[in-house]
Amino acid sequence: MAKILTHPAAVAALLAALAVSAPATASAAPANTSAAATSCYGGAVTVSYGDAVEFGPYTTTSRCADINLRMVGGDAEFVWACVKFTRVGECNYWTKAGRSWKTIATDVKDGSKFTVPLGVDLEGSSARVQIAF
To answer: Per UniProt, which keywords does this protein have (predicted)?
Structure first.
């Protein structure tokens, strides 16, 4: 038959032992992910299609692991965007982006120089976009 601990000192000792050996939880991970996204997007630059059709040059930072883009204004329904790394000299691939953040290049190396050519859905349309890198 099991004994029930009724002495306060024994109960305290048992609780202390459990606290030391209990595994840690990873409940802070989502907050860190959110903070990283906020930090990445918080450093975004805003540009207007029509002022230019290719933006940059920019240099990637440790702030973002990817290069992201979203529309924040204009009458275009979407834009086409690509990343042109200076060392390569041509677009990686074209990505359709709307008003939500869209990744246009993944796993970029810090310190990489690049430009972002854009195209709009219809000739004469305008677009204001943010680029986070």
So the answer is: Signal
Provide the pLDDT for residue 67.
98
Instruction: Please tell me the distance from the alpha carbon of residue 56 to that of residue 65, in angstroms, as a whole number.
Output: 18
Picking from 73, 67, 35, the residue whose alpha carbon sits closest to that of residue 51 is 73
Closest CA to 55 of 118, 106, 112, 111: 118
Phi-psi region of 124 (alpha: psi -120 to 50; beta: other; left: phi over 0): left
Q: Which helix (H) or strand (E) holds 18?
A: helix 8-21
pLDDT in tens, 34-71: 666 668 999 999 999 987 899 999 999 999 999 999 99
Q: Quickly name the fold that domain 44-132 has.
A: Jelly Rolls (2.60.120)
The answer to whether the beta carbons of residues 121 and 49 sit under 8 Å apart is no
Asked if the peptide bond before residue 57 counts as cis, ω within 30 degrees of 0, the response is yes
Secondary element (H or E) of residue 113: strand 113-120
